Backbone:
């Protein structure tokens, strides 16, 4: 299954944000990688700023270029605010929802749980990380997967019901996707307007 397999901390340092989760490398070196990483006088063009924001969103949610472009086009064709539609589409992905519910510590880990058939949606096993979850859908661990070490460890450290649009029952290892979150509720530091401006050119 296609996904980014390169160095995670190098990308985190590039964007100066822990987009793949907590990063000790970013704490030690809070500047970009490479020979010019420490430079304070990097003047970026408008296009470069927009492109960087799009790349940050891609790596944060674990999408490749074609997947991200398709999501943008669907968000653009849908009525309403394109930027908010795009973020809601990213948030409603099954792998991201599993991550938000606390079953996994990272989106990569959540993606693996889904692709290895540990996750059910409304009682049916789904192994497609990009599966779009709908309002009211119930996401759960399969009975044989509820005692997986990664799941137990993640739930033991995850804050209870941290995100308003999902609820989690740690005892039954299940949760519900309540509604599509607004841009204000989504905690990711992504300026979606820059992405819309980039694709609108």
Residues:
């Amino acid at each position: 299954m296609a996904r980014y397999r390169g160095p995670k901390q190098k990308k985190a340092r590039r964007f100066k944000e822990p987009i793949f989760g907590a990063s000790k490398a970013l704490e030690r070196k809070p500047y970009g990688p490479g020979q010019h990483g420490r430079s304070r006088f990097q003047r970026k063009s408008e296009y470069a700023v927009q492109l960087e924001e799009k790349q940050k969103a891609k790596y944060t949610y674990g999408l490749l270029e074609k997947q991200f472009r398709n999501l943008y086009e669907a968000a653009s064709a849908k009525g309403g605010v394109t930027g908010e539609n795009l973020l809601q589409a990213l948030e409603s992905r099954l792998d991201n929802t599993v991550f938000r519910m606390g079953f996994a510590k990272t989106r990569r880990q959540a993606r693996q749980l889904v692709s290895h058939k540990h996750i059910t949606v409304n009682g049916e096993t789904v192994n497609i990380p990009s599966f779009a979850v709908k309002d009211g859908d119930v996401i759960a661990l399969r009975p044989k997967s509820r005692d997986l070490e990664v799941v137990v460890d993640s739930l033991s450290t995850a804050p209870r019901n941290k995100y308003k649009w999902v609820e989690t029952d740690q005892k039954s290892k299940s949760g519900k996707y309540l509604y599509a979150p607004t841009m204000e509720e989504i905690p990711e530091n992504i300026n979606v307007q820059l992405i819309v401006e980039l694709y609108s050119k």
